[in-house]
Specification:
7 strands, alpha/beta, 7-stranded mixed sheet
Length: 249
């Protein structure tokens, strides 16, 4: 039996496109480094082959592109469906990013992510569900669920410098700003067969959050950096329900 026959089945789910994602990464890195001082730490910790889940904190609007471009492996990131409108939507789809409805159960997004992992690829996810302080106060179940289904290791990623202190929700860092991506050691959860209980996924998510908080503190200490703090008053983004921790205020 194929791994794609395992519940939830992905036998008929197409793999997201990869040609643009792979082809544009080198030139995209070159272009971004002309504007920013991008530093990547811990890339040697990322498994070179096999499925992997990159789970990152979410600070600024450029976090997703930075992860897709500078991760050691091409990343199919779960991206809010609102970003897939107009020309940007066509680009995101052709570059293999996965549209996600954050406000409803989205089985297609789940199956697309599982397809990538079951084919030995890399998926990116931001467990906070939206941009903010990046301190993992709100934490969702998606990363742990994908790991429990596939057995793929989770690599925590700390995004640092992608929004200035006091920066607005859609702001990008000024020219020559130092942007840092810190990849921590992989974290593994034992794969769990169908059916997977909600309380089991929740407990695994809480354990992953503690691991990511530890790695985030180490990344900040090692780089001598700090997070930008919350978004300005009145700019807090809608908070999807379903997190395993309380809603931020």
């Amino acid at each position: 039996m194929s791994v794609h026959d395992t519940l939830p089945r992905t036998t008929t789910t197409p793999h997201p496109p990869t040609w643009m994602l792979r082809g544009l990464r080198p030139v995209s890195r070159w272009l971004l480094r002309r504007r920013y001082d991008v530093r990547v730490h811990g890339s040697e910790r990322v498994p070179a082959t096999g499925p992997v889940i990159f789970a990152a904190n979410h600070v600024g609007v450029i976090d997703g592109p930075l992860l897709a471009i500078f991760a050691p492996r091409p990343v199919h990131a779960l991206t809010k469906i609102e970003m897939f409108a107009g020309r940007m939507g066509g680009f995101l789809r052709h570059s293999g990013q996965i549209p996600l409805d954050r406000y409803a159960t989205d089985p297609r997004a789940v199956k697309l992510a599982l397809r990538v992992l079951r084919d030995g690829g890399a998926v990116g996810i931001f467990p906070e569900g939206h941009r903010g302080a990046g301190e993992l106060e709100r934490f969702h179940r998606g990363a742990a669920y994908l790991a429990l289904v596939t057995g793929a290791p989770i690599v925590p990623v700390s995004m640092i410098g992608t929004r200035e202190p006091g920066g607005h929700t859609g702001s990008i860092p000024p020219r020559r700003a130092r942007l840092e991506l810190v990849f921590a050691a992989p974290y593994s959860l034992d794969p769990t067969p169908w059916p997977r209980r909600r309380d089991h996924v929740e407990q695994a998510s809480l354990e992953l959050r503690e691991r990511m908080l530890h790695d985030l503190r180490e990344a900040l200490a090692a780089t001598g950096r700090s997070l930008p703090g919350p978004l300005p008053a009145g700019e807090q983004l809608p908070d999807p329900s379903g997190g395993v921790t309380g809603t931020t205020t």
